[in-house]
Amino acid sequence: MYPVLNIYQQSTTVTEITLMNQGCGSDNICQSNLQLHYKFCSKMTQNDRNIFKSLVRDEGVAVITPSDEEIALEITVTNRNGDDAHQCHSVIMLPDTVRYSSVLFSVAEEDIGCTANGNGTLIDCDLGNPLRRDTEVTFYIMLTTSGISLNTTVVNVTLQLETTSVQPIQLIEALAKVVFELELQVNGLLRPSQVSLGDIMKGESAIKSANEIGPSVQYEFRITNLGRPLKSFANASLNINWPKENSVGKWLLYLVHIHSEGVHTVPCTPVDEVNPLKLVKGWDAPPRRRREAKLESSSTEGLSIIPSRRKYKTL
């Protein structure tokens, strides 16, 4: 409030002091009309200027896709058709899933500023004393998504306006959905592209070496992430089903070895599916490599070399 002191000196030397609130009604009571609007945004820089774009919405609710980039909660406070709002504050309460980073204002305001508590879950923004009638303030609370996990489905931010002017103000909940989007691409390669299993297939008890199961087959799977990095908030897995046995329990494909190439090793489960009969001590067993090379040299891309009299299946 801005008090105005009117001092009248009378002959009896009695001084009269009258307190009046500028920007208030005729009854000297400030009745503000504060309104708060919010939206979740992404931030980009263009020509040294910050550009904020609303996040994609699903059924009217903003969708957050966790990443290394910050998201912005745009808050606009208006005071239309009301008196000045004295000691006007906006209090923002954050969940543990998002972290406060900084605050940006749409225009330079000397009388506006925000402070946060130690863990960044409570931000108090001073919007002016007073926030004049028929004015508005827009600012952006910058948030990181490092606390979001695969179990997070919703981000709920609580917003509260406060003023010493007369106005009942309710809490507002700013809601956003959390969606994990992964652009994964899987490519497969088989060497050789065709194999002959032989006329006689043995059961497990009759097999003494891996050579008796059949020729060597190598499957190669290449997984490429075309989108944002997974980081720590998500894991990707590849489920592989292969024809291990036929309908009567005879071996078709015996898993000898799993090898991975890339930035880190790839653990596979269950581990007892790899070489369960302990028939092979290593992937580079000489007899199997020679036979594999022979089969590859006899195959032609796009041309079947299996005689028509043999039975064959595509697996």
From TrEMBL:
Main location: membrane
Gene3D superfamilies found in the cross-reference section: ntegrin, alpha v. Chain A, domain 3, ntegrin, alpha v. Chain A, domain 4
Alphabetically ordered keywords of this record: Glycoprotein, Integrin, Membrane
Localization per record: Membrane
Integrin alpha second immunoglobulin-like domain mapped to chain residues: 24-169
Pfam family, one: Integrin_A_Ig_2
Membrane topology designation: Single-pass type I membrane protein
Integrin alpha third immunoglobulin-like domain boundaries: 184-315
UniProt xrefs under PANTHER family: INTEGRIN ALPHA, INTEGRIN ALPHA-6
Protein name: Integrin alpha-2 domain-containing protein
